[in-house]
Write a structure and sequence with these properties.
Blueprint (H helix, E strand, L loop, with lengths): L9 H7 L3 H23 L4 H8 L3 H8 L8 H10 L10
Amino acid sequence: MTNKHAGSSFDDFLKEDEIYEESTAIALKRMLAWQLEEEMKKQNITKKAMAERLETSRSQLDRLLDPLGTGVSLETMQRAANVLGRKLRIELV
């Protein structure tokens, strides 16, 4: 019996199972949420203070920091980066 995935990449496997886009979006959101939380820790900014700086609710901030919640707008991500004195960089590769 031969392995039909031998020699293929993990990306190919995900595309074949039609979950590549979803998996990639979740991975990117996890990384962004982690980076935001790490920067907040570095700057000693609480969630309450971050929500106030973003002029939003704590529950909205929790959605932004939810690693699985991929339905966050680019505008919201940009505002969060700005509040932390960072830049959001998105690129096609």
